[in-house]
Each structure stands twice: as structure tokens, then as C-alpha cells.
Amino acid sequence: MDNNDTEETMKRDFIRDLINTDLTSGRFSGKVQTRFPPEPNGHLHVGHAKSICLNFGLASEYGGICNLRFDDTNPATESLEFVESIRQDIEWLLGHELSNEPVFASSYFEQLYEWAELLIKLGKAYVDDQGAETISAQRGNFTEPGANSPFRDRTSEENLILFREMREGIFPEGFCVLRAKISMEHENMSMRDPVLYRIRNESHFRTGDDWIIYPTYDWAHGQSDAIEGVTHSLCTLEFDSHRPLYDWFLEQLGIAEGERPYQTEFARLNFTHTVLSKRLLKRLVDESVVKSWDDPRMPTLSGLRRRGYPPSAIRAFCDHIGIAKTNSTHEIELLESFVRDELNQSSDRKMAVINPLKLTITNWPEGRTEYRDATNNPNDSSKSSRKVPFSGDLFIEQEDFMEEPPLKFYRLAPGREVRLRFGYFITCNEVIKDGNGTPVELLCTYDPETSGGKAPDGRKVKATLHWVEASNCVEGSVFTYERLFASEHPDTSTDVFKDLNKSSLSMHSSAKFEPSIETLKDGEVVQFERLGYFCKDDSDTNLFHQTIGLRDEWANIQKQNNLK
Ligand code: ATP
Ligand code: MG
């Protein structure tokens, strides 16, 4: 699991093998250039992290560059808001600013248009006056060939005039499209006269009303790669069937084989208990299932950031899983184990009580407050500590007390003695209840001889509880989270919302914290003793989001797998 330098230099996978072969053969004159091409129509999710780590990682390993290229060819769904958030998320994930400014497919619209005219002049593209439905119906399927459009044999001259008229806005939206003229019988459906341009009466967030025709993904993508000088165009497996088309366009445009970029596909990242599709994530926001794109339950990079995931843990996870050619689904617990390992090393310990129960020490000297030494981080070599106030008025966790404890409940109960962390041994003598019979206060005594956490007579206790002193505490809220989807594999084929976990968020609004939490920075993650890791929200209130629990669920899964 460790991600040290030796492993870094030895990284091997089929993409790196291809690049090494290209370097040896002198293809691209030793240059390696990649790109990460998101469409600015939503926020990035953790699946994108794999592609970002791969593309930016390769550029840095091979001393090349990686462009963040916005694939902004669909004006209806794209916006500047997404451009900005995508850049911010990438810089957060990588841990540094981009070394070169982002680029945009829309910057190439004029060049793409000229290339389309060139295709027309070569007799390799035509204007089709049929509607989208007819074109789709004529494509055939895997077993049957498609049918030629009645407009397929228009002359180059005629097509050129019509295409220029398309650009000028003579035709209404949907009236006609520009298609490549390849073959309607091609065994690869992507090659059956794909659409290159469609009419869209929409303003574009960058080019405004300059254009009325917009290129499709297929037409824009490889050509944008070529314009930028990309060498290795890496995409996910679903683009596999588009590869021959990618090559066909560049070949028609006269770019020599050894010089043109080429596409290689790798497996998408998928996780259990979540969905990684912008369309579905957008629905979760639009239908108010979650509060926003950066809701800590969302698998978006902004959601994980808000939840306190260290970007280095996501990068280490991506390194660990590597690159493969077959799709698979990773257990979300594996990603979480990387987060936990990292936070265990990096985060300070604090004490907090999420669901408080009042505890009064009846033999504590009136008016006295002690300042107890508490270790900040047992994994930190400096072994620094802080002072935590302690008195006879405390809060403990409701869960840590049971009036009639079942077997194996070792925490506090009437007549039982336990240790308070960094404090003393206490014994519960009396339970005060409200009208409903719910305990509201515990009356306890402490043993002043146990100040060092041990009893001089050697008697043992079975539990150590965390606590917060009442008169100096800070009040606030803690949000704890469960999986957004209850099922391991949410069923995206029907209504995926059926699989939602109804209790994915629990709000605890009367939480108590030790005073030192006031010095925490927004976004800082701490371990609340015995509870897990929590991230301070950047709002003004003392709100903490649960990053992750303490228990290593990944280890359990491995154990179960070994038993099978
Ligand atoms: P979604 O399917 O969630 O809508 P997308 O593929 O449409 O995502 P893009 O903005 O087109 O989103 O993706 C940008 C890049 O990220 C593409 O190269 C795509 O292959 C890659 N990518 C998207 N999802 C994943 C994933 N789950 N794992 C790895 N790479 C991904
Ligand atoms: Mg896509």
C-alpha cells in the first residue's frame, strides 16, 4: 500500500509500456503530451480522479505537458461555473496549480470548420436534410447494415454552399446536419456516416453568438488533440469503438501516421455504493436528495474535499489500483482505508461528545478546574500535548451508558467503574431520569488516586471513555454520514433512486467540544477520540462533518474473502 519513490519510478502498466515503445522508436521525437478533456457540464467526481492522476502523472513522469482542455462543444449544458469548479478541483487533487492555463475546444471552432470544408471538398462529407430520428433509424444495428441517406450523393459544390448556409443561420435548428461520408455498411456503427455538425440556436459561454453550428464530440476531439500536439490521447473504454473514426478523420486531413496523436482506452473507475455519472449526480442535486454538488455524501471531488478527504489519499489510491483494460468495481472501503491511513498519521486528536449526557462528580472539590495533559497525536514524533479542562461537571456520550447493560457492554452502568481518558477512574452511583424514564444525568464519584490513569492498588477497568468538561466547552453540530446508496451496486438500469439510503445523514445539533477546537482552520480534519475523523466546515458555526469512522472495514472485507 505504501507509495514511496521506488514504486513511483517503477510504475508499469500497458500505457506506460506503449509510451516507452514510442520513446524507443523515436515516434513523436521523444515527446509525451497528454490532456484531460472534461465537458464543463457538471462537477468532477472521484472517477475523474483516475483520469486526472493518469494524464497529469504521465506528463510529469515523462517531462511532458498535460493540458486541461474543456470539451465545450455543447452550449446548452455548459457554463463558466463548471469551468471554474473543475479547475479548482483538479488543482486541489494534484496539490498544486496547473502549470499551463486551461485550453478550450471552442478556441478551435474556426479551424474545425475549415477542416470540415476540406472534408466536403474531398467528397468525404455531406449535408443531410433528414431529422435526427430518421438518421438514427437508418443506422441499422450490429447485425444489419444501415441505409444510405437520399442526400448522400450531393456534389461537393452543393454541400459547400449548404454548409456555409448552415453556418450563416439560414436553416432552423434540426433542419440539417453535416455528416462524414464513410460507409453505411461498416461493421463499426461509429463509422456509419457520423454527424460532424448540428445547428444549435444557443449562445455559447465563450463564443457567444458567433456560431450557430457546433461540432460533435467525435469531430472536435481528435482534431483538438492534433492542434495541441497531444501525443497520447487516453480515454475510457466506452470510446473503444470511436478509435477507428478518430484515426480516419486525422488521416483524411493529411496528418501523417507517425505524427498524429493516437487514442488508447483504459478502464473506468467504479465504486460500490455509489454512482459515478454526472447525469445521475445532477439529478441528486436537482431533486434535493442532497443539498449541493459539494454535499459531503456526494462522490464529487468537491464533496470529498468538504468531507475532509486528503487529496494525497485519493492519489495514493489511484496509484495503488493502477491502470487496467477491463472494467471493474472497487470496494469503496478500499478508498476509505487510504483516507484512514493518511488521517491516522496526520490529524490531531481532540475530544468531542456528539450526543451528550450530563455526568456530575459528586465528590469533586467545589469550584475547581484542572487542566489535564492530552496527547495531540500518538503517531507524531514530537509527542506534543495540550491542556484540556476537567471538573466535576462533564458530558459523556449517551451511547457510553446503559442502565441495564447486556453481556459484553463494558462501558458505564450503575455501580460500575470506568476510566475517563486523560482523567480519573469514576464510578456511577445514581441515575437521574426525566418524566419518560430517559437518563438525563449520572451522579458519579471519582478516585483522586487514579490521576495517572491507573489505580495504585492495581484494580482494572474495562473501558476508557471520552468526555468534555461542561463549563468551558464549545457548542456546535456534528453531521455523521452513512452510504448514500444502501445497495452495493445501485441499479442504474431502472430507477436508481430506489436504492437510496434514507438515513444517510444524521444531524447532532447539541454536540460539545473541548475548547481547543476553536483554533482549528476551516477544512482541517481531526480525530475525535473514539468517534472517528471529522472535518471543520468553512461556515462560521462550529459544524463538523464526519470524514470517516475509525474501524477498518476494508480489513474486514479482506478477512471475509480469505475465509471464503
Ligand atoms: P460522466 O460519464 O460521469 O458524465 P463523462 O465521461 O461524461 O463523465 P467527461 O467530462 O466527458 O465526463 O470526462 C472527462 C474525462 O474523464 C474523459 O476522458 C473520461 O473518459 C474520464 N472519465 C470520466 N469518468 C471516468 C471514470 N469513472 N473513471 C475514469 N475516467 C473517467
Ligand atoms: Mg462522457
Keywords:
seven-stranded mixed beta sheet, Ribosomal Protein L25, Chain P, 3 domains, disordered N terminus, binds magnesium ion, binds adenosine-5'-triphosphate, alpha/beta, Rossmann fold, Glutamyl-tRNA Synthetase, domain 2, 564 residues, 23% strand
Outline the structure in words.
The chain is α/β, with parallel strands linked by helices and 564 residues long. Helix content is 28%, strand content 23%. It has three domains: 3-266, Rossmann fold (3-Layer(aba) Sandwich); 278-348 and 476-510 and 519-563, Glutamyl-tRNA Synthetase, domain 2 (Orthogonal Bundle); 352-466, Ribosomal Protein L25, Chain P. The strands form seven sheets. The chain has a seven-stranded mixed β-sheet with strand order 12-25-26-27-23-24-13. The chain has a seven-stranded mixed β-sheet with strand order 21-18-19-20-14-17-22, with no helix packed on it. Helix 3 crosses helix 12 (311-321) and helix 12 packs across helix 13 (332-346). Residues 1-7 have low confidence and may be disordered. The structure holds adenosine-5'-triphosphate and magnesium ion.
